């Protein structure tokens, strides 16, 4: 059976187009050439044939076809079998020729043809594009970076990017910061001479904190001013070669990434000079007094750093007690006070203020004999994580508690808590869930919402719970806490400090079974009316198989070696089967032969996800996904068999019509024809006529 859609109307003519050229690519890099057809007649799904000519107007060599496996020339057979040359259907009327690693001998004119399915030959049935292949001469030489730089200093990233100009191409250079397994873009220059920055570096580039310095002979330098602790990490230089194709399209043809080195930023303690003096001196007890604390000669203050002040006093005497806090102003101007002086601050009898640029004042309406000290402070956090319940087996519950110890923060404090994890100390960091200062919980993975809990158990205590621990949950977990402050409840939160806790490890060994998978087919080619059976076998070792359950999915692709596959059917570990709708006349069924085997008709690859019941915890644990090999099934066309039924039906119909005609004739003859006797003419009448 087939479904045909006549798309070629009255005066429409077939149009075949390919990627605009000429195309310039680098030897050893992948190449994709798109071919599409429109305004055609016949079935919606069209076929494509690719040929190549080494020089314009020369002889063509057959390369690959979407429907004829014997179409290709023998010179391409090995590359097609290895997948280096393939054709992928993107839509019914669009296909793409792919070359995995283009070679110098692949240069030439590529011709895409579409066999005619039109009732009237009209339009063009082929299109061609020229492919140039140039050698890979791109060179990237980064300069070695210092292993350590002090905070607030300047860091220069120099990189030499060059290539041999065999054909007009363009260069770009990018600098990236690598933390864990991910790399983040800092700045890119080129290929049109423009500059683009990463999202986290846009404001620093506009402020001049990140700037580009063009050198000579292909040397490009990126200067980062006023480095902070967040700038430490591994830096990379990425050189890219581009071509400007017809239509104004920029195409990257080759790239090279080189690691420049790892830089550690050493924190520096700010330096300054304090001067304390009485700007208003009382003449006697009870008169107002005003003290000024001037901060001068400030250096090594990190970018974005703020100054805060704390005022203390101590009594004179032989046994001097430790200084007692009066009040303080944090870096954001929030007023903090000890309970002893809170009423005096609220009534206005005691006041703390700041006079720009860096002068802090303390004023008493009534003075007493005191000695005052001034201390510069910064808000800090100390986070301690402790395990409550350790997960020693799969399926167990893991719990940890994070306690926040704040310093130099106000009364109105809110905390945003992020639970983070990483598989290894050098792996990428991912956020599991978070709790905002307003106690709003967010999950990064909604599928595990029921097994994750993050709650606030005290003013500065937070508890995280992970139920049903799997093998994929092994790694390190910790709390990332950001403190927010505000002067009164109506104000919005202001970021004050951030810190991370120590890391708690989930590490257990699950001695579960090991699985292997194999696929078998009872036939490699069938006729259209036959049924093909494919068997997906799962072997289990190391544990009893009676506790196993499997999720099985079957996939299908139209072309041999195509990486894009579509799912046709699946069966869950609970035995529920699902079919995927597809454009095919064949039907698909799945049955479980025994505890470790499934059957499928009409497909050639399966993927299985095993589940087993943990012997230690008695809970279901998911094992790694298994992928079988591929089985190719071809459908043969039998001419004799295909004509047998039409001839049989035609002969039977002719015989039936003949018998019906004979019967109809007999019935008409019996009903319409009468048997009447002949009456002779009277002779008397003839005699009468003669006498007359």
Question: Any key phrases for this structure?
Answer:
Immunoglobulin-like, 692 residues, six-stranded mixed beta sheet, 5 domains, immunoglobulin domain, six-stranded antiparallel beta sheet, 9% helix, disordered N terminus, mainly beta
Polypeptide structure, described:
This protein is mainly beta and 692 residues long. The protein has five helices and 49 strands. Mean pLDDT is 80; it is low at 1-10, 368-377 and 594-601.
Short note summarizing the structure:
By secondary structure, this protein is mainly β.
What's the architecture of the largest domain in CATH terms?
Answer: Sandwich
CATH topology of the largest domain: Immunoglobulin-like
Net shape: elongated
Q: Going across the major beta sheet, what is the strand order?
A: 11-19-18-13-14-15
Radius of gyration: 42 Å
CATH superfamily of the largest domain: Immunoglobulins
Protein name: Prostaglandin F2 receptor inhibitor
Subcellular location: Membrane
Transmembrane segments: 647-673
Membrane topology: Single-pass membrane protein
Topology readout:
Elements: E1 15-18, E2 23-26, E3 31-38, E4 49-53, E5 60-65, H1 77-81, E6 85-91, E7 94-99, E8 108-113, E9 126-134, E10 139-142, E11 148-150, E12 155-162, E13 170-179, E14 182-189, E15 195-197, H2 202-206, E16 210-214, E17 219-224, E18 233-245, E19 249-266, E20 271-280, E21 289-299, E22 308-314, E23 324-329, E24 335-337, H3 342-347, E25 350-355, E26 359-364, E27 371-377, E28 380-389, E29 398-407, E30 413-422, E31 430-435, E32 441-443, E33 452-456, E34 461-466, E35 475-485, E36 494-500, E37 504-506, E38 514-521, E39 525-526, E40 534-541, E41 548-556, E42 566-571, E43 577-579, E44 590-594, E45 597-600, E46 605-613, E47 620-622, E48 626-627, E49 634-635, H4 639-672, H5 683-691
GO cellular component, one term: membrane
Organism: Cyprinodon variegatus
Keywords: Disulfide bond, Immunoglobulin domain, Membrane, Repeat, Signal, Transmembrane, Transmembrane helix
């Amino acid at each position: 059976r087939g479904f045909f859609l006549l798309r070629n109307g009255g005066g429409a003519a077939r149009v075949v187009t390919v990627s605009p050229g000429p195309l310039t690519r680098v030897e050893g890099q992948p190449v994709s050439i798109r071919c599409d057809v429109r305004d055609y007649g016949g079935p919606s799904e069209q076929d494509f044939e690719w040929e190549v000519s080494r020089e314009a107007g020369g002889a063509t060599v057959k390369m690959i076809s979407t429907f004829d496996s014997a179409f290709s020339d023998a010179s391409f057979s090995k590359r097609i079998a290895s997948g280096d040359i393939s054709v992928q259907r993107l839509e019914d009327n669009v296909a793409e020729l792919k070359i995995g690693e283009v070679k110098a001998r692949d240069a030439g004119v590529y011709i895409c043809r579409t066999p005619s399915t039109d009732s009237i030959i009209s339009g063009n049935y082929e299109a061609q594009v020229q492919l140039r292949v140039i050698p890979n001469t791109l060179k990237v030489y980064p300069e070695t970076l210092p292993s350590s730089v002090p905070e607030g200093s300047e860091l220069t990233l120099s990189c030499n990017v060059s290539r041999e100009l065999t054909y007009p191409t363009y260069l770009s250079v990018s600098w990236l910061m690598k933390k864990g397994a991910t790399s983040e873009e800092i700045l890119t220059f080129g290929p049109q001479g423009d500059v683009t920055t990463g999202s986290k570096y846009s404001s620093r580039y506009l402020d001049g904190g990140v700037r580009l310095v063009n050198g000579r002979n292909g040397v490009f330098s990126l200067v980062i001013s006023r480095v902070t602790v967040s700038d430490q990490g591994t830096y990379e230089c990425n050189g890219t070669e581009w071509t400007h194709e017809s239509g104004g399209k920029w195409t990257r043809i080759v790239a090279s990434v080189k690691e420049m080195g790892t830089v550690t930023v050493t924190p520096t303690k700010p330096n300054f000079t304090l001067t304390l003096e009485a700007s208003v001196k009382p003449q006697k007890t009870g008169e107002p007094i005003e003290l000024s604390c001037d901060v001068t000669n400030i250096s090594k203050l990190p970018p974005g750093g703020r100054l805060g002040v704390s005022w203390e006093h101590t009594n004179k005497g032989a046994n001097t007690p430790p200084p007692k806090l009066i009040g303080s102003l944090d870096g954001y101007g929030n007023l903090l006070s000890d309970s002893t002086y809170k009423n005096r601050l609220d009534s206005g009898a005691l006041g703390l203020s700041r006079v720009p640029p860096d002068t802090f004042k303390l004023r008493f309406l009534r003075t007493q004999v005191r000695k005052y000290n001034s201390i510069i402070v910064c808000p800090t956090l100390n986070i301690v994580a402790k395990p409550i319940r350790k997960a020693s087996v799969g399926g167990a519950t893991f719990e940890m508690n994070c306690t926040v110890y704040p310093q130099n923060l106000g009364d109105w404090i809110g905390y945003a808590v992020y639970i983070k994890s990483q598989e290894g100390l050098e792996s990428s960091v991912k956020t599991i869930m978070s709790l905002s200062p307003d106690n709003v919980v967010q999950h990064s993975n909604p599928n595990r919402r029921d097994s994750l809990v993050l709650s606030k158990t005290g003013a500065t205590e937070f508890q995280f719970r992970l139920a049903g621990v799997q093998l994929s949950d092994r790694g390190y977990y910790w709390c990332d806490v950001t403190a927010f402050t505000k002067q009164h409840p109506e104000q919005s939160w202001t970021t004050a400090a951030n810190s991370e806790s120590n890391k708690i490890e989930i590490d257990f060994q699950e001695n579960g079974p090991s699985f292997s998978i194999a696929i078998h087919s009872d036939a490699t080619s069938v006729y259209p009316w036959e049924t093909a059976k494919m068997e997906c076998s799962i072997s289990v070792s190391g544990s009893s198989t009676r506790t196993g359950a499997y999720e099985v999915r079957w996939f299908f692709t139209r072309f041999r070696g195509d990486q894009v596959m579509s799912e046709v059917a699946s069966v869950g570990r609970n035995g529920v089967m699902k079919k995927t709708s597809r454009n095919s006349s064949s039907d698909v069924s799945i049955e479980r032969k025994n505890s470790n085997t499934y059957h499928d008709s009409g497909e050639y690859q399966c993927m299985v996800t095993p589940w087993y019941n943990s012997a230690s915890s008695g809970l279901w644990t998911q094992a790694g996904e298994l992928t079988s090999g591929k089985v190719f099934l071809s459908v043969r066309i039998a001419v004799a068999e295909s004509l047998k039924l039409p001839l049989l039906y035609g002969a039977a119909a002719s015989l039936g019509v003949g018998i019906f005609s004979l019967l109809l004739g007999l019935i008409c003859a019996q009903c319409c024809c009468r048997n009447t006797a002949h009456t002779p003419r009277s002779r008397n009448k003839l005699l009468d006529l003669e006498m007359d």
